Amino acid sequence: MTHLCNDPREFAATALCGFCDVYSSIVKPTSGGVLRATATRPGKVALVIGGGSGHFPAFAGYVGTGLADAAVAGDIFASPSARLVHDVCVRAHRGGGILLGFGNYAGDVLNFGAAATRLRAEGIEARVLAVTDDIASAKKGDESRRRGIAGDVTVFKIAGAAAEHGMPLDEVERIARLANARTRSFGIAFAGCTLPGAGAPLFSVPVGRIAVGLGVHGEPGIGEIAMIQASELAELFVSRLLEEAPESPGNRVAAILNGLGGTKYEELFVLWDSVAEALRRRGLGVVAPLVGEYITSLDMKGCSLTLTWLDAELESLWMAPCCSASMRIGDTGPATPGTAEPEEVEKQAGWPRGSSESNRAGCAIARGFECLAAAMREAEAELGCIDAQAGDGDHGMGMARGSAAAAEAANDAAIAGAGAASVLAAGGDAWADRAGGTSGALWGLGLRSASAALDDNSAVTAKQVATAATRAFEDVMTLGGAKPGDKTLLDALLPFVETLSAAVDAGVPLYTAWEQATNAAESGAENTRNLVPRIGRARPLAERSKGHRDAGAVSFALAARTILQVLGESR
Amino acid sequence: MTHLCNDPREFAATALCGFCDVYSSIVKPTSGGVLRATATRPGKVALVIGGGSGHFPAFAGYVGTGLADAAVAGDIFASPSARLVHDVCVRAHRGGGILLGFGNYAGDVLNFGAAATRLRAEGIEARVLAVTDDIASAKKGDESRRRGIAGDVTVFKIAGAAAEHGMPLDEVERIARLANARTRSFGIAFAGCTLPGAGAPLFSVPVGRIAVGLGVHGEPGIGEIAMIQASELAELFVSRLLEEAPESPGNRVAAILNGLGGTKYEELFVLWDSVAEALRRRGLGVVAPLVGEYITSLDMKGCSLTLTWLDAELESLWMAPCCSASMRIGDTGPATPGTAEPEEVEKQAGWPRGSSESNRAGCAIARGFECLAAAMREAEAELGCIDAQAGDGDHGMGMARGSAAAAEAANDAAIAGAGAASVLAAGGDAWADRAGGTSGALWGLGLRSASAALDDNSAVTAKQVATAATRAFEDVMTLGGAKPGDKTLLDALLPFVETLSAAVDAGVPLYTAWEQATNAAESGAENTRNLVPRIGRARPLAERSKGHRDAGAVSFALAARTILQVLGESR
User: Fold this and answer.
1) ipTM given for this complex
2) pTM for the complete prediction?
3) Residue B5 is nearest to which of A19, A229, A290, comparing CB atoms?
4) SS (HEC) of A186-255
């Protein structure tokens, strides 16, 4: 549980400020993360890493000479927005291209991927590497679906050394992929973690039991075993990882025995005593082992063992000097402070003025965001509970945060006289920046796409609304990588868009068309539900048991219903 | 709570093994602690630090170039024995004398003090420095009675830098005393810590409350306040410490915001954000702040703030390069591995054979230790509970561990044919080595003193027993620094010794004299008790409420009663 806190919503950002103050000779804060405070050679490949917060020392603790050039930090357990990733990359770029490194989670894949696409469109060569070391998260043969846990650290360390050595982007990417392909981790937990401001942990493990194969975002494990002694756990770790050894493994390994936050250093050293012995007994030579907290999950109790099978090249990069806040190896030589890059003006000074008709529509859109924010705030806890059944329980928080930020930005734009398209775009950008996570990225993207169907010169027509919704659906489906039926937002969005378009095409007025579409969205969201059906709407059991209710589909249906009320006000 | 454990009794020793394996380029294990693994200039003053275990990275994490030369490690929260401290010092000595640094706790003061006395007797110049930074543990004006908490780290860092610079022992001692005199800490806790193998924490803090002014051994705080926000806590820390600023403070401070083990780095950074602001607002310049875990108390939740007011000399020593496992500043240049010092033969190869009469007495003494060990094992939990009311709750564990080790050593000696004096001395030495803490040191000392009244050539007379008991009492009182009536072991030992001597002088046979003395010891132990009196022994309320029961007095009375049974067997 978190005791030291001011405003829980500002927890991650305030912690990053405090961190940058302590390590000001190594890092400096930037909007959305941290950059090296030291001068870096022009032309060097930049390694930009990141993900959600709550994993200290991941990721800001690994920025420094011989390691990463920058880290992007989302909110607690929430991916940073594509715009933040992009902006941090632009500031970290030294002309040699960028490798973006992150753990293989949907939100990070989406946001870092979208940022890389945008960087390439702007002429900056950018590659992405999703770390996939957690053997418990998908079967052998399906390695690309595995999550990234403490293997992030060996992969980023090795890639950072390659970049510092002056290797070109192709080589740095090759090395990073090789390191990832030769890295395996396995983790266990004794107790779940508690989000700042929350009263209870995200999951709990029964007394006398150990959860096996958990993630680092409060996801429970894939199984449970009875409590065992440290020496037995060492055998479990080592034997499971050795079953997964890569091809041509050799007999040299880098090792990280990682504490998840609530397991003490003394305990980790006790376990390491047995792990080291178990590795030696199998003829493996351990190179510069790390034992301690390297990627945590707030106060989760538990640990993981990571092995990276080294060849000669990987070993020399693993041992290469580095100097970051949380990892220091050898001697990186004297550092000179970097020049202060003038941060681009972040806040848009003003919006283009729209016509008075379009501004009136913009004001209505801002009013829509305001009602949406109120509805999401009210539904936050319930959406969190629904999400916790299948995900990490942060959906409600993300929707509340995103819609609140959108409401504020849209209101500012509307007051400044902006037209409908600009108000909607301002809301979408703010949503993506503040909500974090997959759903935040998708909502931001969808609103941005929708805004392109409007303009700043005229009132909004029903036809435009239908087109905007269709565009949003198309882009969300393309970049999100899911299909209707996958139990996502799309299960509500697709019937909404289809119904809305058909009704508008048939000449139905906007309010009525939106009402029909909202009903369709609610049905779609319910189709992912395995609950007692509403009274009077009994469905066959087969349909009812299709699966759990998806938080993203539910929140979209709620948003549609809220906007219907706003449309009703102005009739 | 500790989850990763094999045998809880071996927890601290195993953790130290694992630590030394991970940091083998910096430290190497030695009996009782760790030494630098790197070569150290002959003639340099050696800084030897230490105390109980359970405080990682204190103390082994601070051994390395520019910091300590060695760390002595007792068991969890228990001081290492004087013999271990002495032996580690001998191995760390480079001809320049030794400064022994430790927190101001009774057990450490006793053991490090006794070790220094022995070193000086052997011709090695040794000084002691007990750190006294905790402002909550004694009032202003009574600074020498204050405990040492995270201020250990600034004082040892500065003293270590002075020694590395080649300053002579007088200067290193002066600098260390100056640093201690200018260092203040204040701590709070949200929850107590749990000893390895134990099922419940040593103390707990009610939900929504904060314990103020606690120690680092599971001692509860001196008071309680309602839960406050991080920014308010920062104000509390800074304002309390500034009230205690030393004379001529200046405006430059070293700062450590120390997590006690169960409080996460992110939380500490959130708090630091406010602490840094509070210090700046008061015009103080913070020099190279440390925020993280620097001296923990197992998994205790909480933190402390330490300030050391710097003058120019202290500031340059605080910033000087160092390279230890857990603190690295600047660049200490290339290190060469140290030569392997041949460890002295630790285990005595054999005992001098005694006469058959004396060996028979030695066997009886060994039998006494065996019964004592059984009794202490049985009473361990109860003695722990009694101790927890006033101390850190480790008395039962220490007595059980010490008496078990004594029984084994005494048995070995008796089987090898040793006489009474040697068997008793062997038991006493083993007790001191394994029990740790104040009581372990005092029991070891007392048994050693007692053994000097016996010999290896004859049977033991009642007169010798009385003399032995008297000598033990005298030495325990002198070195322990307490007086009868202070609610210590002496409250039972003094009436025991007086009664025994008087009875023996009057010609009473040993069994009966011991019985009378045991009764007196039990009365003495009861006099420190504030409990419902035994049936039939009603005492006036005034006497009953004199105070709590002292665990040391109770365990001595129990020991006396146990030995009486052994004497009865052989009648």
Assistant:
1) 0.79
2) 0.80
3) A229
4) EEEEEECCCCCCCCCCCCCCCCCEEEECCCCCCCCCCEEEECCCHHHHHHHHHHHHHHCCCCCCCCEEEE
